[in-house]
């Protein structure tokens, strides 16, 4: 049976919103059920739900879908489909495959029409980079702050850590040499 509504992205988004709200209504319904419920507890549950509704309204008006898992997932899926169908971005992605630096650059430079995917990718990229950097930092700190270097102050340790974690910065020797003037000694 052909259902034309399934071709309408707005209708599908409304359906996803209905799914998310129905989940929340189910949670409220379960809180209101059961024997021995005091009216104060029931009132508090309904009041909390009313406050959540106002909060969700402001979140939705700001296009923040963080509390609506089905809507957020649907938006991410729609963006992913758009990304997969974009021949220019597909070519750039193929060129970046196998090279983690190029892949990271591709993900960082996604066009603004992919806001949800950009958020997901940035969270993902930070996750792996930060654990590696933390481990590297603690290893360096352990190496530098040992019993033989007990007079190393916190300020010195901070300076050592800053320098040791910036090993990806390379000096441009050609440019530095060009800027340096040669000093010729007097001729005899």
Features:
mainly alpha, 188 residues, HATC_C_dom
Structural topology:
Layout: H1 9-32, H2 39-61, H3 69-85, H4 87-96, H5 100-108, H6 115-144, H7 154-165, H8 173-179
Protein name: General transcription factor II-I repeat domain-containing protein 2
InterPro entries: HATC_C_dom
GO molecular function, one term: protein dimerization activity
The assigned structural class equals: mainly alpha
Overall shape: flat
Distance between the termini: 101 Å
> How many strands in all?
0
State the assembly state of the protein chains.
single chain
The biggest sheet, with number of strands, parallel, antiparallel or mixed sense and barrel status, is: none
Instruction: State the helicity in percent bands.
Output: over 70%
What string, H for helix and E for strand, traces the elements in order? HHHHHHHH
Radius of gyration: 28 Å
Strand fraction: under 5%
SS field, number of helical segments: 8
Low-confidence stretches: none
The averaged pLDDT comes out at 80
Can you walk through the features of this model?
The protein is mainly α and 188 residues long. Among the domains are: 4-75, no CATH class; 100-144, no CATH class. 70% of the residues lie in helices and 0% in strands. The chain is built from 8 helices and no strands. The protein has helices at 9-32, 39-61, 69-85, 87-96, 100-108, 115-144, 154-165, 173-179. The chain starts with 8 loop residues before the first helix and ends in a 9-residue tail after the last helix. The model has no long low-confidence stretch (mean pLDDT 80). One of its GO terms (molecular function) is protein dimerization activity. It holds the Pfam family Dimer_Tnp_hAT. It comes from Triplophysa tibetana. Residues 105-161 form the HAT C-terminal dimerisation domain. InterPro entries: HATC_C_dom.
């Amino acid at each position: 049976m052909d259902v034309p509504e399934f071709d309408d992205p707005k209708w599908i988004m409304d359906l996803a919103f209905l799914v998310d709200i129905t989940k929340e209504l189910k949670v409220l319904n379960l809180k209101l059920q059961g024997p021995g419920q005091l009216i104060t507890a029931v009132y508090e549950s309904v009041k909390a739900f009313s406050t959540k509704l106002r909060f969700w309204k402001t979140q939705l008006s700001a296009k923040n879908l963080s509390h609506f898992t089905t809507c957020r997932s649907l938006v991410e899926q729609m963006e992913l489909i758009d990304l997969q169908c974009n021949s220019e971005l597909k070519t750039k992605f193929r060129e970046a495959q196998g090279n983690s630096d190029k892949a990271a650059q591709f993900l960082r430079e996604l066009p603004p029409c992919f806001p949800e995917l950009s958020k997901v990718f940035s969270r993902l990229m930070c996750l792996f980079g930060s654990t590696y950097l933390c481990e590297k930092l603690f290893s360096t700190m352990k190496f530098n702050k040992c019993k033989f270097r007990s007079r190393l102050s916190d300020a010195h340790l901070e300076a050592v850590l800053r320098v040791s974690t910036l090993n990806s910065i390379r000096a441009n020797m050609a440019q530095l040499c060009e800027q340096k003037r040669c000093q010729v000694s007097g001729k005899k």
